């Protein structure tokens, strides 16, 4: 019950972005603190060994002892290793560098594979509603959107990408996974700091978070004659949208399409790229309105 009240008091996407960033900063500071403690312990152990060796060397010089197990009294003597011992020593002393090299080789391989096999997205759309029936028609919505776009990136393919980020106070209960709400909240925060996904499909459960009157364009001024638009929302209930994606029954009253504004909260993507994605979102919305009317 307490968690529900906390979520209902969520201050909105602007403060959410700040809170998520502060949380990540605290995590980074905690990792650095632990790393500093580990390094400090290693330094203290090393200094302790040096101090013992100095005492041992002083005892040798003063004749207190004749031999020492802690000091290498024959530093110039060479040890002879077999071929396999040399190989073993090489991997043992070079394991960190080999690990780092292997990591970068794997990353390079993944990037090359991803570049060769992946299809560039023409437009990204955020799906923020937790409506299960709507999500079941994920592929149908993708096909519908592909019919509403052009080959914006000129790669010979028309490809729309739907980012499913369900946000609601009861989502943890629905999926049976604790922390799912917080994970999706972080994803939403990240997306709102980028200017890639400027078109979204949402419902009123997300309004307290995304603050549509602040973050979305007033579509009523852009499409004054569209009967399905009220303010910044294109409501889908009385349109052909359900029929076009094979949705069974009627679309809920509160599900709508919106277009994000180009604001100063978008700090990750270059402004010119954000503006281009915004313009393409409106161009796509033109096609959507024609199809669903």
Silhouette: elongated
Q: Please state roughly what percent of the residues sit in beta strands, choosing from under 5%, 5-15%, 15-25%, 25-35%, 35-45% or over 45%.
A: 5-15%
Order of helices and strands: HHHHEHHEHHEHHHEEHEH
Estimate the mean pLDDT confidence.
79
C-alpha end-to-end distance: 42 Å
Helix coverage percent of residues?
55-70%
**What's the number of extended β-strand segments?**
6
The structure class reads alpha/beta
Identify the strand order in the major beta sheet: 2-1-3-6-5-4
Low-pLDDT runs of 5+ residues are: 1-9
Radius of gyration: 30 Å
Assembly type of the shown chains?
Answer: single chain
**The biggest beta sheet, please?**
6 strands, mixed
How many helix segments?
13
